[in-house]
UniProtKB/TrEMBL annotation:
<dbReference type="Pfam" id="PF12833">
    <property type="entry name" value="HTH_18"/>
</dbReference>
<dbReference type="InterPro" id="IPR018060">
    <property type="entry name" value="HTH_AraC"/>
</dbReference>
<dbReference type="GO" id="GO:0003700">
    <property type="term" value="F:DNA-binding transcription factor activity"/>
</dbReference>
<keyword id="KW-0805">Transcription regulation</keyword>
<dbReference type="InterPro" id="IPR020449">
    <property type="entry name" value="Tscrpt_reg_AraC-type_HTH"/>
</dbReference>
<feature type="region of interest" description="Disordered">
    <location>
        <begin position="1"/>
        <end position="20"/>
    </location>
</feature>
<feature type="domain" description="HTH araC/xylS-type">
    <location>
        <begin position="241"/>
        <end position="342"/>
    </location>
</feature>
<keyword id="KW-0238">DNA-binding</keyword>
<dbReference type="InterPro" id="IPR009057">
    <property type="entry name" value="Homeodomain-like_sf"/>
</dbReference>
<protein>
    <submittedName>
        <fullName>Helix-turn-helix domain-containing protein</fullName>
    </submittedName>
</protein>
<dbReference type="InterPro" id="IPR018062">
    <property type="entry name" value="HTH_AraC-typ_CS"/>
</dbReference>
<dbReference type="GO" id="GO:0043565">
    <property type="term" value="F:sequence-specific DNA binding"/>
</dbReference>
<keyword id="KW-0804">Transcription</keyword>
Length: 342
């Protein structure tokens, strides 16, 4: 009932580092652990429970729509320490981790991004409930919890060994109670998790890069939510990663510039360039590369055939069609129109 797939696509995303060394320690960095599409309805609930267990979730798993269970779940192993990235899309689900199950030794902390609509999460006698936007929750796997999603939705979760976070449990507990969309890192980390899933799908062998960034951003988020004095240190350690994520999320905005990026991170433009000096690619070229990648993908997308080349260029941050064409040819050795018609 559970399907496992080895990595067969070693094509790397431009700029991705650490891929080759990642394959030396694990040859199954990505797995499709569940797809209920081809399963009889009577087998789907058990298949879902088995898949959740394979993802390291020790809890009672109870589908809400027992006669119409739908689920697809991917699990990526990011490092030797057991850090994983999981993406599940499916019908409603009730997860209950009891006191007895919590006694099973678990040193993992989960950071979970839940799509909006009807869900609740309870831990540390604190209830979090769905709103109009995606929400992050912090889960201590060593404590009981109750999570219920009543409708179809998406969950992205990273599980990290607590030793990698190097934070006391009272800090994690305080962060779990206090984390909200008002946290300065909430939106950025949520965007990162969605971006991480895209990277893992396209280039699963980039695991080592994902691991380091995921751990550092999770640590910074927990410190900020807990009001921990290490927040400043954690924020500084993740500044370059946060800038990269911000560029990826806003690359199609024609107004994106060093001034805008610096203001979004509450730093001066001079400080922005100072911290970026360690990168192989200039800030302007990073923005340009991301815009060109978006344009290249949209030009090859059959569902975008109704859009003109100029319209795609504008949608990807190029206000001048001539400039777009010149930059595209310099990067890919062909014009946007020729690329589309290949």
């Amino acid at each position: 009932m559970v399907k496992h797939h080895r990595v067969t696509n070693s094509r790397l995303r431009p700029g991705t580092a650490g891929a080759r060394s990642a394959t030396t320690w694990h040859d199954e960095l990505v797995s499709l652990v569940l797809d209920t599409t081809a399963l009889p309805q009577g087998d789907r609930a058990d298949a879902l429970r088995e898949a959740m267990q394979s993802a390291g979730i020790t809890a009672h798993v109870m589908p809400f729509q027992k006669t119409t269970v739908q689920a697809k779940m991917h699990l990526w192993k990011l490092d030797r320490s057991g850090t994983t990235l999981m993406h599940r899309v499916g019908t409603g689900l009730w997860l209950e981790r009891t006191h007895r199950q919590a006694q099973i030794a678990s040193e993992q902390i989960a950071l979970t991004l839940l799509s909006p609509r009807s869900w609740t999460f309870n831990q540390y006698r604190t209830e979090h409930a769905s709103g109009a936007s995606p929400a992050l929750i912090i889960v201590n796997q060593a404590e009981p919890y109750d999570h219920r999603r009543h409708d179809f939705g998406s969950t992205i979760a990273v599980n990290i060994d607590r030793s990698l976070l190097d934070l006391p449990m009272d800090t994690v507990a305080r962060a779990s109670r206090n984390l909200s969309s008002a946290n300065p890192l909430h939106g950025l980390v949520g965007d990162y998790l969605k971006h991480a899933v895209e990277i893992a799908r396209e280039s699963p062998t980039s695991a080592e890069q994902l691991s380091s960034t995921t751990v550092q951003l999770t640590r910074a988020l927990i410190c900020a939510a807990a009001g921990d004095p290490r927040t400043g240190e954690a924020m500084s350690a993740t500044l370059v990663d946060r800038i990269k994520i911000y560029i990826d999320a806003h690359a199609t905005d024609p107004a994106l510039s060093a001034d805008v990026i610096a203001a979004a991170h509450n730093i001066s433009v001079r400080h922005l360039y100072n911290v970026w000096r360690t990168q192989e690619m200039s800030l302007a070229n990073r923005i340009l590369q991301r815009r060109l990648e978006r344009a290249r993908d949209q030009l090859a997308d059959p569902t975008k055939r109704h859009l003109t080349v100029a319209a795609i260029g504008r949608a990807c941050g190029f206000s001048d069609p001539t400039h777009f064409g010149r930059r595209f040819r310099a990067a890919y050795g062909t014009t946007p129109r020729e690329w589309r018609n290949r």
